[in-house]
Amino acid sequence: EEAIELHRAALGLRPSGHRDRSSSLHQLALCLSDRYDSQGAVADLEEAVTLGRAALELRLPGHPDRAVSLYDLACDLRTRFQKHAQMYDLEEAIELQRAALELRPSGHPDRSSSLHVLSLCLSDRYDSQGE
Fold this sequence. Notes:
By secondary structure, the protein is mainly alpha-helical. It contains 6 helices and no strands. α2 runs antiparallel to α3 (42-58) and α4 runs antiparallel to α5 (87-102). This is Kinesin light chain. It holds the Pfam family TPR_10.
């Protein structure tokens, strides 16, 4: 709870155009996602997705943290798919994980995480649609 409050305060000090705004958005999204995992408040998951999208918009191609934003947003979208069974969330999660993989070539320390979550998403799609 305190981490969320502090990240909200930091975000307030990093208005649009601030060079570290994407970091504040991303960190707050992570905390809200963690709170959703522990408490199950759907509003936390929804806000995490919204903030994750905003962070990704600021982390354009070439940004050193773009892959982590792609990965984390995809994870939240997969979680939301598991909650609401909306295929568009899962399809977007697959697309984002594939984009993250492009930024995590063979030998990258986080490549296995992206491969793992992508495989989970594809398995979810199979379970849902038989594809």
